[in-house]
Amino acid sequence: MLDQIVARLGAEKAAYLLEHQSSTFPKSAIHAPRPNFIDEVWSQSNRNIQTLRSLGALHNHGRLGGTGYLSILPVDQGIEHTAGASFAPNPIYFDPENIIKLALEAQCSAVATTYGVLGAVARKYAHKIPLVVKINHNELMTYPNKYDQIQFGSIKNAWDMGAVAVGATIYFGSENSNRQLIEIAEAFEYAHELGMATILWCYTRNSAFKKDKDYHLAADLTGQANHLGVTIQADIIKQKLPENNGGFTAVGFGKTHPKMYSDLATEHPIDLCRYQVANCYMGRVGLLNSGGASGGNDLQDAVETAVINKRAGGLGLILGRKAFQKPMNEGVDIISAVQDVYACQDIDLA
Asked: What are the entry keywords (predicted)?
């Protein structure tokens, strides 16, 4: 399996990623995913028995079941990016059932999508694959567009549909982030009371974060967003892979320490991602990185992201557009290639 992963990456990139040894946070300090992660880590927390069972449902389903890692199919782009723009490349996904079929065919750990999608098919599929209801969205029809997330339904409705988890987005740094933070903290508290797990999309949004480069993807900014997310007791953090660092200093706000940049991170992508993991309570709360937009070399890009996430100490990948904007069999192949990384015991922490 390792030889196939190396071939997909290419020799030069494979060496760069697979031979890297991190000198920032020692790997022994990371709570890395493993088969008994819920017993050893989550059982020490305040999560109730029903929530632990829901986390177990996520961790024990699909091809990666029992490994400690997750492979989730997310499809909320019909709202976030417009349905036409999202599904035009493969119009079968205008039908919600095909979203679930893709997740089943690819042996995903779960499928994360909207109230409407799951409401249309929940009775048929809730017992066949763990369902994650995304409870808020940026509706994108307001002109000019604004950075806001509004709730589309209730936590009770998600529970009634048989969901094992709810997901939500907070746009940290936006003018509406305080309201979103309060709303989602309350929603997650209720979800835990009902026994559902919680997943937080911790995105940064502020036009001031674009300077000489786009610092929305800076390790220091995304890392702090993660830290805020785990503070409201998200069980899983979803974050974009970092591409740079020094957002606080470039924008000129917040508080920093020189060691954030000299000792706790380097320019290597695995080290930048490990800084994100460290801000998730050193991996006690799992980090899912995004698969990103579909492009010209999706298979290699997805495998590269998976290797970075796994070697940094992350929980897995939540990959959507690279899979559903293609014929279903090609989408399944990309998800399977990502799962190969997490199933491969020869790829370990850096």
From this structure: Lyase, Schiff base
> Hey, which residues are catalytic here?
238
CATH number of the domain encompassing residue 146: 3.20.20.70
pTM of the model as a whole: 0.97
Give the tens place of pLDDT for each residue, 202-213: 999 999 999 999
Domain assignment present for residue 327? The answer is yes
How many CA atoms are closer than 13 Å to the CA of 341, on its beta-carbon side? 35
Exposed, middle or buried by CB within 10 Å (0-12, 13-18, 19+), for 229? buried
- Position 80 pLDDT exceeds 90: no
Domain enclosing residue 151, as ranges: 33-343
3 state SS of 150? strand
Secondary structure (3-state) at 238? strand
Strands of 184-332, DSSP E: 197-204, 236-239, 286-290, 316-318
Helix (H, G, I), strand (E, B) or coil at 209: helix
> What percent of the chain shows pLDDT beyond 70?
100
Domain count along the chain: 1
- Per-residue model confidence as pLDDT tens digits over 137-161: 998 888 988 889 999 999 999 999 9
Question: How does DSSP assign 241-267, residue by residue?
Answer: PP-B--HHHHHT-S---HHHHHTS--S
With respect to residue 62, please indicate whether it lies within any of the assigned structural domains.
Answer: yes
For residue 196, tell me if it sits in a domain: yes
The reply to whether 122 falls in a domain is: yes
Q: What does the mean pLDDT of the chain come to? A: 96
Torsional sign, CA 100, 241, 218, 183: positive
Residue 146's pLDDT is what? 84
* C-beta atoms surrounding 118 within 10 Å: 26
Q: How far is it, in rounded angstroms, from Cα 70 to Cα 92?
A: 25
Would you say residue 192 has pLDDT above 90? yes
State whether residue 204 is helix, strand or coil: strand
